[in-house]
Design a protein that fits this description.
The complex is a heterodimer of chains A (137) and B (396).
Chain A: H1 14-26, E1 30-34, E2 40-41, E3 56-60, E4 64-73, E5 87-94, E6 99-105, E7 117-126, E8 129-136
Parallel strand pairs in A: 6-8
Antiparallel strand pairs in A: 1-2, 1-3, 4-5, 4-7, 5-6, 7-8
Chain B: H1 2-7, E1 13-20, H2 31-45, E2 55-57, H3 65-72, E3 79-80, H4 89-102, E4 108-116, H5 138-146, H6 154-168, H7 173-187, H8 202-207, E5 210-212, E6 215-216, E7 225-234, H9 235-238, E8 246-254, H10 272-284, E9 293-295, H11 301-310, H12 319-323, H13 341-344, H14 351-362, E10 375-382, E11 386-394
Parallel strand pairs in B: 2-3, 2-4, 9-10
Antiparallel strand pairs in B: 1-7, 1-8, 4-7, 5-6, 8-11, 10-11
Classes of the chains: A mainly beta (137), B alpha/beta (396).
Chain lengths: 137, 396
């Protein structure tokens, strides 16, 4: 898919709001990063799943990722998506560990396969939401 | 310590009453009306009256325990609990009920669920607003991370992991098709099944339109308006009631880590049932191959394959061999969803699977009867991956 879908941006709250605000401000994916043990967590949690620390920051990740799984939609009831069918959504495993969902760009849905290297970029949609894209690395 | 507590539940409580409404696509009845009707019918089936019921396990949404008590007429409700795990709730509720009965917190427990899964999606222009909703914590994850990509309903969320299942393990569409065909074949024997008189061939299954890979339309269960209910009591009291008691021999729930979000699990194919199944078999002291039938929560065909693997019938990715050659059809070794399941009878959050398992063990399943069956299992499956299981046996 190369056309941006005309979706309504969600209005996140709590930690999800903080996550998206950090990502929008940096114009780059920023993931929850534990201050104590250094592990990366997504979606963000109040306590680090590895070490239980409540202290973290949202830090930039490299954007390097591989395709862990994917969905190819052939059907939609939403006007934003109908003209774009079929389209691929990728479960991308970041080099830092966590997985994010991103929209495939610059590749045919049929070309997507598990293990394929991709690069994650962000597109600002509001002050509190960015869409994630996955492109061939 | 925990092992002794769970072992003490085995054989302590039994299902004594069952009921289900018709399975409909469109109804004039409200959810409360259907739930109250099924509850009353289940109590009567048990040979009891509403005042005998002293505990209620209501559905995880739409209808609350207090209005059920008020409409059906329970005078002294002394215990309520509500497992919050979507389609895993009814089967998990059997264990909760047995625990309440075994400890003396309650003697007669009503479990019920119902919804307008068809009509809610097609509201009439003159429909009046109401507050009957189902909500869950994972809705927040969906809103923030899945829905912006058009992944707004179960087939699309499920495709995120079922596509990995199909591709990574090379699971053929025909394996999922065998589940769809078994359910459809069994529905032909069930007067209440939505898909009765609509037989299905593998060719028709494979030609069904793709929704979200690997899910075709015929991999998805049917939208339904319905309700169902069961009544449980102690094994001692059960033996004085009209029907052969159907005893809870083992049961458990389990949840993937993390329960509210799908894609950041260590393995995206981690299921709650992977954890729950061994606990339930240990409590019952039986093995998967001792089962005479399997009533497996079938929101999607591929999920049934994953559950069969979690139950121990195959390694991960290998259920295709288990479901072929009629093994899961009536006449085969492990008849599955002998009522037609959610694929072809109707979607009642798996309470219909409990109703059918009870009918089988009473030897009252009509043309779908598994001859002489004594032992069977029911599973539940909730978004996004909650698992529950009950191992049920014919008393005596």
């Amino acid at each position: 898919m190369d056309t941006a879908p005309q979706i309504t941006a969600p209005r996140p709250d709590e930690l999800n709001l903080a996550f998206y605000q950090a990502t929008v401000a940096a114009s780059q994916l920023c993931v929850q990063h534990c201050t104590r043990c250094g592990s990366w967590t997504h979606p963000p949690r109040y306590f680090c799943p590895e070490c239980t620390s409540p202290d973290f920051s949202f830090d930039r990740v490299s954007g390097a990722a591989t395709v862990y799984s994917y969905s190819i939609s052939h059907f939609s009831v939403e006007p934003a998506w109908k003209p774009l069918l079929p389209y691929a959504v990728i479960v991308a495993e970041l080099a830092e560990g966590p997985r994010v969902i991103a929209l495939a760009r610059g590749m045919a849905p049929g070309d997507v396969h598990i293990g394929m290297p991709v690069r994650i970029t962000t597109e600002r949609r509001s002050d509190e939401f960015a869409l994630f894209w996955a492109e061939k690395a | 310590m925990s092992r002794r507590v769970t072992a003490s539940l085995s054989g302590k409580a039994a299902i004594v009453g069952i009921a289900e409404t018709d399975y409909l696509r469109g109804t004039e009845q409200s959810i409360l009306q259907m739930v109250a009707g099924a509850s009353m019918a289940a109590i009567k089936d048990a040979g009891l009256v509403p005042r005998d019921v002293d505990a209620i396990i209501p559905p995880p949404g739409y209808v609350a325990w207090d209005e059920i008590a008020a409409h059906v007429g329970m005078a002294d409700v002394r215990y309520t609990a509500c497992p919050q795990m979507g389609g895993a709730s009814p089967t998990a509720g059997l264990v909760t009920a047995a625990a309440a009965i075994a400890t003396g917190l309650a003697e007669v427990v009503l479990l019920t669920i119902g919804w307008n899964g068809y009509s809610a999606l097609r509201p009439r222009p003159d429909a009046r607003p109401n507050n009957r909703r189902f909500t869950a914590a994972f809705f927040d994850v969906v809103k923030n991370y899945y829905a912006p990509y058009g992944l707004r309903s179960p087939p699309f969320w499920y495709s995120l992991y079922l596509q990995r299942y199909a591709r990574h393990y090379g699971v053929p569409a025909e394996a999922a098709g065998a589940v769809a065909l078994a359910c459809r074949r069994h529905a032909q024997l069930n007067a209440k099944a939505l898909m009765r008189d609509r037989p299905l061939t593998m060719q028709e299954y494979l030609a069904s339109p793709m929704i979200a890979e690997p899910l075709r339309k015929l991999d998805c269960c049917v939208e339904t308006d319905c309700a169902a209910a069961v009544v449980m009591t102690s094994i001692e009291r059960a033996r004085d009631l009209p029907h052969v008691p159907v005893t809870l021999l083992g049961g458990a729930e389990g949840h993937p880590n993390r329960p509210d979000e799908l894609v950041n699990r260590k393995d995206i194919l981690d299921l709650g049932l992977d954890l729950a199944a061994p606990r339930a078999f240990a409590m019952a002291g039986v093995k998967p191959h001792d089962m005479d039938f399997l009533q497996v929560y079938d929101c999607f065909t591929y999920v049934v394959l994953l559950e069969l693997e979690a139950l121990g019938f195959a390694q991960r990715g290998g259920a295709g061999d288990f479901v072929k050659d009629g093994n899961i059809e009536l006449g085969g070794r492990f008849p599955l969803n002998t009522h037609g399941g959610m694929m072809s009878q109707g979607h009642c959050w798996g309470m219909n699977h409990i109703v059918e398992a009870t009918r089988q063990l009473r030897h009252a399943a009509g043309p779908a009867q598994v001859a002489g069956c004594k032992l069977g299992l029911v599973t539940g499956y909730g978004d996004l991956g909650d698992g529950s299981i009950a191992i049920l046996g014919r008393d005596g």
